[in-house]
TrEMBL record:
Residues 4-176 form the 3-hydroxyacyl-CoA dehydrogenase NAD binding domain. It comes from Profundibacter amoris. GO terms for molecular function: NAD+ binding; oxidoreductase activity. InterPro entries: 3-OHacyl-CoA_DH_NAD-bd, HotDog_dom_sf, NAD(P)-bd_dom_sf. This is Carnitine 3-dehydrogenase. GO terms for biological process: fatty acid metabolic process. It holds the Pfam family 4HBT_2.
């Protein structure tokens, strides 16, 4: 049965909490007198729906319902968790806590998002202070798992246990706060103070400090406390940043762009991929995951498309190739650190069709082959269509040259046939 959470205050923080709870299957009731709150919550929820489910390798619960309530009493009625996300004004929070406790279940957990006030201050005028805790999260709340959980001697062990159970149940990592001050806020303030000092003394600029965090310390801190798996984690983070062309990933992309492309001889299979197998491409058997073979061959297809002129500008103009059939043969093991190359032969290139055959090598050792049939489409209609004249001409030129080559071993072979 779905549980209900009440969110009191639907600014950025409240919207983040609402999005995480709802995507995790909770019914959400919100109260905020600001008419602009609906638009903000809707936008944040849309972002959460795109991002949060992708962090899990299993299906999340069905998304809960969401209702904007006209009164606090309506919002908290039946809620088992009440998240207060009001502006940092102590008297306002205390007044609202009193209102909440007039109408909420006595067993409900009331959690404040404060990063400013102590728990004792929040509990000061409460009817049932033992109900109130602090749960301070870091934006974007719908993605980052950290939540600083503050309880004190007024709270019962049952309230603390229930709070941790709820937070862990929505995919968060509650960290106990030993004192009254939120550690993340104190740490952020300390870093800002030191950064301001370095800037004032002329030792660094704001951009310098930002770069130190983005390109080094921030990444190392994110992987801190790990054993020998730290390298794999750092590689995965850097490659994720690379895919987004952000931070240290943008540095890696700029480096890649400086590397010289091999000279093309269209009378021979074309070199389309040359790379080293990264750590995060391996699986539990210690060799390259089968999905990565497809990625390598997909990259080879993308490079072949660039060679014939089907590049980013052409795709932006409304034409591209879609893969309609794929056959991969896994012939030998590939391990992390292996330097692989893919050579591509065009078996057919006429009309709407493009038939490619990729061979993957490490040195002279054949590792795998990939055979792919692609159809040219209009991105406006999403239907098959002939390519532009310059694409057809270049593709035809390569296909004619490759027709003089021997048919690759394995071309046209069905699944299950002898190699």
């Amino acid at each position: 049965m779905k549980q209900t959470v009440a969110i009191i205050g639907a600014g950025e923080t409240g919207a983040g909490w609402a999005a995480r709870f709802r995507v995790m299957g909770w019914d959400v009731r919100l109260f905020d007198p600001d008419d602009m709150a609906r638009g903000l919550v809707g936008a944040v929820l849309q972002q959460a729906r795109r991002g949060l489910p992708g962090l899990s390798d299993v299906a999340l619960p069905e998304t809960g319902d969401m209702v904007f309530c006209q009164t606090i009493s309506e919002a908290v009625d039946g809620a088992v968790w009440i998240q207060e996300c009001l502006p940092e004004r102590l008297e306002l929070k205390r007044k609202v806590f009193q209102k909440i406790q007039e109408h909420c279940d006595r067993r409900a957990v009331i959690a404040s998002s404060t990063g400013t006030f102590t728990l004792a201050e929040l509990q000061g005028c409460a009817t049932r202070p033992e109900q109130i805790i602090a749960a301070h999260a870091i934006a974007p709340i719908y993605l980052l798992p950290l939540v600083e959980l503050a309880v004190n001697d007024v709270n019962s062990p049952e309230v603390t246990a229930r709070a941790k159970e709820v937070l862990q149940g929505i995919g968060m990592a509650p960290v106990d706060q030993q004192g009254e001050e939120r550690v993340s806020v104190a740490l952020q303030n300390a870093l800002q103070t030191e950064a301001d000092r370095l800037i004032a003394e002329g030792m660094a600029t704001a951009d310098d400090i930002s770069d130190v965090l983005r390109y080094g310390l921030g990444l190392r801190w994110a992987a801190s406390g790990l054993d020998a798996s730290q390298d794999a984690v750092l590689v995965a983070m850097l490659r994720a940043l690379k895919a987004q062309d952000a931070g240290a990933g943008a540095v890696l992309n700029r480096f890649d762009a400086t590397q010289a492309e091999p000279v093309l001889d269209i009378k021979q299979p074309l070199p389309t991929v040359t790379r080293t197998v990264p750590l995060d491409w391996t699986d539990y058997n210690g060799h390259m995951n089968e999905v990565r073979y497809l990625q390598a061959f997909g990259d080879a297809t993308d490079r072949f498309m660039e060679i014939i002129g089907c590049d980013a500008d052409y795709i932006a103009s409304g034409g591209s190739y879609f893969t309609v059939e794929t056959h991969i043969r896994h012939l030998d093991e590939v391990h992390a650190g292996a330097r692989i190359r893919v050579e591509t032969q065009c078996l057919l290139g006429e009309g709407k069709k493009m038939h490619l055959f990729h061979r993957m090598y490490e040195g002279d050792r054949l590792l795998a082959t990939g055979e792919h049939m692609l159809i040219h489409v209009s991105l406006d209609t999403r239907r098959a269509t002939v390519p532009a004249d310059h694409i057809a001409a270049r593709l035809g030129q390569i296909a004619t040259a490759h027709a003089a080559l021997d048919l690759p071993d394995g071309a046209g072979r069905a699944v299950g046939e002898d190699r």
